[in-house]
Amino acid sequence: MEARTESDAIYRLVHHGGVDQPMHFPRPLTIFAATCAIIFSIVGVLGNLITVIALLRYARLRRHATTAFVISLSLSDLIFAGVNLPLTASRYLNEAWVLGETLCKIFPLFFYGNVAVSLLSMVAITINRYVLISRAEIYARVYTSRNIALMLLAIWCLSFSLLIPPLLGVWGTLGLNQATFSCTILKKNGKSPKKLLFLFGVLVPCIVIIASYSCIYWKVRSSRKNLEAHHGAQALPTSSSGRVVKRPGFQRREDSRVTRLMLIIFICFLACFLPLMVANVIEDKVKLPVLHVIASVLAWASSVVNPFIYAGTNKMYREAYRQLLCPSRSKAKAPHAGTAPRPLHSHSSKFSSQPT
Questions:
Q1: What is the pTM of this model?
Q2: Contacts of residue 347, Cβ cutoff 8 Å, sequence gap at least 6
Q3: Best exposed site among 87, 157, 260, 287 by fewest CB in 10 Å?
Q4: CA 203, CA 197: separation in Å to the nearest integer?
């Protein structure tokens, strides 16, 4: 049976009611998808690479524990944009997978692995924000350099270890779905880990993130006076060395801005991936190729939008980009000689001087 019968269209054979029914993909639609993949690949690689370098070079952000997880998120988007999107462009341009069996296994490995890394990095960011706002007295002890490194290692190892069973062919397999000309997780002996991966790689992290942000919201709303009293009448949070951890007004505002920024990142991630999840669920009943392609393009956009969100919504991130891309302007805006710079506070987790 031919999956491609015309030069300007491709047919996906979907088994429905015992009959293979073709789903028509107009050639302009596949060209549109390939073009988006190429553009997103270029913009995603440049944007996320600049973000990683800018955050590593900007001292004021580099000292924040949150920044380590943001860099992890940017690296996963960088890999997705640099590996998956070019392969996706080839797939849509050729209307078939022509890149061999090895790359066909690598494609779903990096696709699902990077989605998991992105979500788990956002989980780590959310928990970091929750501890900072609700348990400031233990923040410096929890977010030491060593602990942050272990958290990052756990995020990446767990995300890709979930794909070891299908990679080895023990539970499902990674390969080409001839009907959709896509490389994905396939059933083997009637079994596939897709549902488990969705549960632990997507659903559970989303629930944790939503629950954490809900706790942050209610904590801020109901305990604003307690948060403001960290350096006032109530017992002051202390570091492991016994010194008081002060949180002046501007620092609280920075914490609040960063928390809002990370919430925006998560909402945009959901907005990008939910249409694809819905399309995959209803695909067998509603055969709309346009819906599938648009949902896929939105999912690819998730690897591109974050640098623009950082730059557009947070002053510190803008300054980090400016310092990297326009160093002369950044120097011109630096404090004059004799002007004391704003201090950096230990609650933001110092990579260089954490207690051991």
A1: 0.78
A2: 132, 136, 139, 140, 237, 245, 247, 251
A3: 157
A4: 9
